Amino acid sequence: MDGEVGSGFDPWSAAFVADPYPVYRELRERGRVLWCEATGQWLVPHHADVSALLRDRRLGRTYLHRFTHEEFGRTAPPPEHELFHVLNGNGLLDLEEPDHGRVRRLVSKAFTPRTVERLAPAVHRMAGELADRLVADGGGDLLTTVAEPLPVAVIAELLGIPESDRGLLRPWSADICGMFELKPDEETAARAVRACVEFDAYLRGLIAERRRRPGDDLVSGLVEARLSEQEVVSTCVLLLNAGHEATVNTTVNGWWTLLRHPEQLALLRSSPDAVLSTAVEELMRFDTPLQMFERWVLDDVEIGGTVLPRGSEVALLFGSANRDPARFPRPDDLDLRRVDNPHITFGAGIHYCLGAPLARLELVASFGALLSRPSFRLAAEPRWNDGYVIRGLRELLIEY
To answer: What is the mean pLDDT of residues 156-183?
Structure first.
């Protein structure tokens, strides 16, 4: 049976962002699908439903491949936001078939198991160097010293972005990702559009350079594969954003989780080789970096007796699904040895995260490097960023 969401679900509340899990428990107990007036969405909190709907082609990341805004009962975004929507709408995450399959087949060549295996020595070396720097400094912000530089360097290396330009990427990404939050304000939108203008211009310059002098990198490969220039730009932006945002947050959220579960951290330190791979999966499940994934209802969908009509927006609650007791025994317990762990942190269906194998490599390398160095302790209580959809700490200050 369905119902309306109470005041507990408040994605603009700092208290809710800091710990949404008790509210998720209430949502799961109340029904399979619940209407949220504040966000104008149907919330789906259960693992089985979220998993099924991610694979259901009656839902889509966009509706513009089938309907105009007017036909779908929606208002077109304001003209001043157009560049953001062009950039975002031509990326893999928002493309639907047949364009999605065409672009994904080309991009996936950069993320094959063989490619990831080839990258492994360099990723472990970089992780070790970053960890050594943190130790040598006596501590610092784990986010900016280790969690952020590693995935940014890896994805930038894949794309062929010069090392001197990599400092531009994270600020652009942070500003663009602000638009993925619920009801972003005009200031957030203006920052995102400005970042899109700058990022777009930078990438078009890089594409022109690769046309003149192709290299052994993904940008050169995409140009050679005859994607349109807009598709190349949008694909690069998506890979740079998705290629590090979730990994950064999984790293810092994961360490904050471990520091609050000293018995599990002690287990991991005592036998990292045996536990590390399952530990990374459990940390992604326990505190999911992407809490919500939104989809449009393209054709009526029925869930537990409630019909979601075409034109509705559905909020698939990844964070709730990953704590669903119907799928995970003792879901609120951190168990780094958990083997049966079908979390949906990487999504499912045609939009399953293309870079999942690379993200796992980076996380294992990063956690492994820090575990093999001296133990550290928390230097200050961390604070959460304002964002709920992409949820992570502002910083994680530690000391040796």
So the answer is: 91
Give the H or E element holding residue 193.
Answer: helix 186-212
**Strand 34-36 with 306-308, pairing:** unpaired
Q: What is the CATH number of domain 3-399?
A: 1.10.630.10
Under DSSP, is residue 23 helix (H, G, I), strand (E, B) or coil?
A: helix
Residues facing residue 134 across a β-bridge: none
Question: What pLDDT does 242 receive?
Answer: 84
Domain coordinates in residue numbering, the chain: 3-399
% helix / strand / coil in the chain, to the nearest 5?
A: 55, 10, 35
Q: With both helix axes pointing from N to C terminus, report the angle between 229-242 and 169-177 in degrees, rounded to the nearest 10.
A: 90
Beta bridge partners of 292: 317
Residues ≥6 apart with Cβ < 8 Å to 39: 11, 182, 183, 315
Task: Please state at what angle helix 245-259 crosses helix 272-286, rounded to 10 degrees.
Answer: 110
Q: What is the chain's mean pLDDT, rounded?
A: 94
Instruction: List 313's β-bridge partners, or say none.
Output: 296
pLDDT of residue 1: 42
Q: What kind and span of H or E run contains 377?
A: strand 377-378
Distance CA 103, CA 99 (A): 6
- Tens of pLDDT, residues 239-297: 888 878 889 999 999 999 999 999 999 999 999 999 999 999 999 999 999 999 999 99
Does the pLDDT at position 169 exceed 70? yes
Cis ω before 98 (30° cut-off from 0):
yes
From 143, 101, 98, 148, select the one nearest 126 (Cα to Cα): 148
